[in-house]
Write a structure and sequence with these properties.
single chain; alpha/beta; six-stranded parallel sheet; 9 strands
């Protein structure tokens, strides 16, 4: 049964979107941090800001200095692509030292992950049609050594372990990024063994396609499973992700270990508050109730953030 608009609006005002892209970034984005604050103050409690090519905590720091109270709680992050030196413990340390109110989220490789580059059906690291800028100079995949997290035996490579060690020291949150589901499974288990909190990044999407039984296993061990509204906007084809199948997955795993996010921020897509509202409207007719959405949008993000 669908929820009424007032209940959804009240819920979104208390929610935290743990996956939203901001600029400046190499890929075009709808908002800078300043613009996001102006758009979303009073509409959503918090947003975790992500970029593929830079640490977002520096932009948050500048925005807070300019605005004081921003009206939106902002969570910083870093993504371990080559732009940040790949598996770079010092980059993790530096971002952690700049964050005061929340632990940072550390996304493992995204656009430089081997799995991503395999599924990016282009000769380019970043296809120029994604950018739409005549001044953009694309690099071919031949210029890159794709990043893997595990070795030939399926164990984490030494550099990945060094990053996890640094994350433990600074109470960071792990997000698995665009690595393959087998790599994400190994990474999640090793991170949980270290006591880290883990958000398994969009495991349902076609470029990862983590089996539901693996998602459930990781959730049973304490990981949170992330589901993204972007699947129904411009990732693959919306018909690839029937809402009833999404709800079945949530019920199989349990709402207490799932988190709903937008993964938005692309130029043509809505704000985080609008994405989450639309996501609730999409899923609620298939058997999720108000309590389920509160758990996945409010309670679980706060647990992951240690609040």
């Amino acid at each position: 049964m669908s929820l009424d608009n007032k209940k959804i609006d009240d819920l979104i005002k208390k929610s935290i979107d743990l996956h939203f892209h901001v600029g400046p970034d190499i890929l075009p984005r709808k908002y800078t941090v300043e613009q996001l604050i102006e758009s979303e103050a009073g509409k959503i409690r918090g947003v975790a800001l992500k970029a593929h090519s830079f640490p977002t905590i520096t932009s948050i720091d500048a925005a807070v200095k300019n605005h004081g109270q921003t009206g939106v709680e902002l969570i910083g992050s870093i993504t371990l692509n080559y732009f940040m030196g790949g598996f770079n413990p010092s980059a993790v340390y530096a971002s952690s030292m700049l964050s005061r109110d929340y632990p940072i989220i550390v996304w493992f490789p995204t656009i430089h992950a081997e799995n991503h580059l395999i599924h990016n059906h282009s000769e380019y690291e970043i296809p120029p049609e994604w950018i739409g800028d005549p001044y953009f100079k694309p690099r071919t995949k031949d210029d890159l050594k794709a990043i893997k997290v595990t070795n030939w035996a399926g164990r984490l490579i030494r550099k990945a372990n060094l990053v996890l060690d640094e994350m433990v020291k600074n109470n960071c949150i792990l997000a698995t990024g665009h690595i393959s589901w087998r790599e994400a499974e190994r990474l999640t288990l090793d991170a949980l063994d270290r006591g880290l909190k883990v958000l398994v990044t969009h495991p349902m999407q076609k470029d990862i396609s983590m089996p539901l039984e693996v998602q459930r296993k990781l959730a049973d061990k304490g990981a949170f499973i992330e589901y993204c509204y972007i699947m129904y906007l411009d990732r693959d084809h919306p018909g690839d992700y029937p809402p009833e199948k999404q709800v079945e997955a949530i019920k199989e795993i349990g709402a207490d270990q799932c988190i709903l996010v937008s993964d938005g921020g692309q130029v043509r897509n809505p704000s985080p508050s609008k994405c989450l509202k639309d996501y609730v409207n999409l899923l609620s007719p298939y058997g999720l109730g108000e309590g389920d959405f509160k758990t996945m949008l409010v309670d679980n993000p706060l647990k992951l953030l240690g609040k």
